[in-house]
Give the backbone structure.
Amino acid sequence: MLGVSVIEASPSLPDSGQVFTKQTLVKGQPTDIRCVDVAGQTFVIGNGPVRTASLEDEWFEDLADPHAAMAALRRLPGRWRPDIFTFWQRMPDTTAQHAFHTEWEDIAVLPIKSYDHWWQHQIKSRVRNQIRKSEKEGLVVKEVPYDDEFVRGMTAIFNETPVRQGRPFWHYGKSVEEVKEQFSRYIHRERMIGAYHEGELVGFIMLSNAGRYGVTGQIISSIKHRDKSPNNALIAKAVELCEQLRLEYLIYLFWTEDSLAEFKRRCGFEPVKVPRYFVPLTWKGRLALACGAHRGWKAMIPAGLKARLKALRSKWYDAKSP
């Protein structure tokens, strides 16, 4: 059985089994989060009325032993003990293997056989035409290093507009130094793909290698160059790189019926369900799970009402935009 000793530790001293604080980005802002190491894996303990614990790098590693992790988390002192433990199964393991309370996550998955197969059979003709058009207009897409020149291009794209997709853009207003530091945290597993027009960076993907699949981290392009379809060209290069790395899937995070859904469909992505488990560790966790509060208050809003609220939010920020 796994043991957990509990002391406060600085981010530079997260010894195994200790509760410690580290900094990460939450909604684009540097935020301190509380973590605990259990048998070589780091779990994040959330705040709020119902505290949830989950594997920090769940996109990139499998949970080694759910029962041992649950037992260790239950032994934490009350001020740190999570109310609910949640974990999921990564692609391609899509059949539920555990008897815990199970819900299903929809993720956007593009199976990778080869670049040619993607080009010929998985994308819409509109996407092929857009990529051909971008090439004719001089768009160059290539893998690039994470250096000062690339970061300056990133920052210029971030600061192009304060509102994207109908809401305030998290990274607007940041300096080159802030962007360089904040986005360097995970470059050990990321490949940078840039789209250039006449030497100017007009879009990029930070493609993460999760072992079994690639994950599109940040993908963004300049609004003034949108007519050149840089995002389509970036996805094409990501597919090519996944083939080179022998990754069987490219994942565009979660599948949601929003403004990005049609773009994902046209580029060959499809919704795939993977099981997520929720295990109550306290009486508060059991109560939250029973009343549907385990995913937070936003998840309790009916889908129709949520869509209307998002539309109103978009109109509000569009009206405020210069």
